[in-house]
Amino acid sequence: MQPSNPDTTKHFETLQRIGTDVAPRANIAVRAKLKCLRKEISVKRTTVASHALLMLLFWAAAPVLSMQIQPSDTAHPSPCLESTLRLDASSVEQIILHPETILEDPERFWREDQAYQLVELWHDAINQPLDMDKWREGVERLAALPQSERESHSQLEAARRVAAIEERFVEQVVPYLCKWIPSDADLSTTIYFTTEIIAAGFQQRGDVVIHILNAELLNLFVHEVFHRGYASTYRRYVSSEFETDPRRLMYLSLQNEGMATYVAYRAIELFPQIGEVGQSLIATDYDLLENPEEVANLHSRLRRLYQEADQLTADELRSRSWEIGIQERANYVVGAYMAQTIERELGRGALVETIKNGPQSFVAAYNSVAPKERQIPTL
Q: How far apart are CA 335 and CA 324, in angstroms?
């Protein structure tokens, strides 16, 4: 800290210079004056330091006083941040350890196992028939294993690892996802892990099912839990016609799958394990998203579908939408590219707002900043 009086400082610096440059015998008076000034400055320093300490204590106490007087944001967190997530691998444990019991009464297992209840609903929702013969063959293979091999089965080990990461995963994923959806969204869900199913993962009736082979791919969890938050929000703002009109459903899937893919893609820093391209759907989607030529190709196919939508019957449109949007991954990759563009050009707040305003606003926000040849046709 420098002396507070400029004149004293200047005088002090002059005397220091004289005291150094002038011979000692000719400088007794000057040294005496210098000693007095040093004492004066020392007193001033002590006074200033005391004042600074008092001010520091005051400002340190100010936030505490402020919290007592003013409402605190942390005292009333957003509903989203209060969401509760739970990981449940009991279905895997039942199938691996007790396949004989399941085979004695398969219908009862499908009726009572919570993960498999959702599996059946998912098949109905996507109009995909259940291959019960293939499912039974898988369970029979497990039943043929000695109990000792079942106990050390790789899928059962994966289930145990899931239990070990639950607390850390929930602590990380809830605040992360709440940055990407409206503050009144509800992420609360149970993530069920199971086996002997054809899906990698899905969200159904507010809960999530993940194939245990994907237990290491936490970005897939992020993707599916985003769907839960999205579903809890958009229905408050969007009319029911979006769920009955196949043309509008294309917009809904484009926004829902696209944003889920983009948000999970941005979570790679938190959860870097994404699997191998060609084996993991999320790794394949991210690889496509990072390839401009692939994005352009999928974009072109999706644009053509939208342009032809009015000329197709409802069944034809559903079939083509499933083929291009889901199987060829256009809704995931192009939708993620659109979300990325909206965030880059308009900000994350504008991207989140499109969930409240509906899928058409997602397309409109993207089209407002996209080149004409890259815009998505409106219905």
A: 13
Between CA 167 and CA 165 the distance in angstroms is 6
Condensed to tens digits (0 to 9), the pLDDT of residues 47-90 reads 434 443 333 333 334 333 333 333 334 445 689 999 999 999 99
User: Does one domain contain both 12 and 24?
Assistant: yes
Residue 107 lies in a domain: yes
Side chain identity, residue 201: G
Residues 318-357: pLDDT tens digits?
999 999 999 999 999 999 999 999 999 999 999 999 999 9
| Same domain assignment for residues 360 and 322 | yes
Using alpha carbons only, what angle is made at residue 141 by residues 123 and 217, rounded to the nearest 5 degrees?
55
Q: Evaluate whether residue 1 is within a structural domain.
A: no
Interatomic CA distance for residues 266 and 336, integer angstroms: 10
Could you tell me if 166 and 41 lie in one domain? no
Parent domain of 35: 6-69
Q: How many domains does the chain have?
A: 3
SS (H, E, C) the chain: CCCCCHHHHHHHHHHHHHHHHCCHHHHHHHHHHHHHHHHHHHHHHHHHHHHHHHHHHHHHHHHHHHHHHCCCCCCCCCHHHHCCEEEECHHHHHHHHCHHHHHHCHHHHHHHCHHHHHHHHHHHHCCCCCCHHHHHHHHHHHHCCCHHHHHCCHHHHHHHHHHHHHHHHHHHHHHHHCCCCCCCCCCCEEEEEECCCCCCEEEECCEEEEEHHHCCCHHHHHHHHHHHHHHHHHCCCCCHHHHCCHHHHHHHHHHHHHHHHHHHHHHHHCCCCCCCECCEHHHHHHHHHCCHHHHHHHHHHHHHHHHHHHHCCHHHHHHHHHHHHHHCCHHHHHHHHHHHHHHHHHCHHHHHHHHHHCHHHHHHHHHCCCCHHHCCCCC
Spatial separation of the C-alpha atoms in residues 219 and 283, rounded to whole Å: 10
Q: Is residue 74 part of a domain?
A: no
The pLDDT score that the predictor gives to residue 241 is: 60
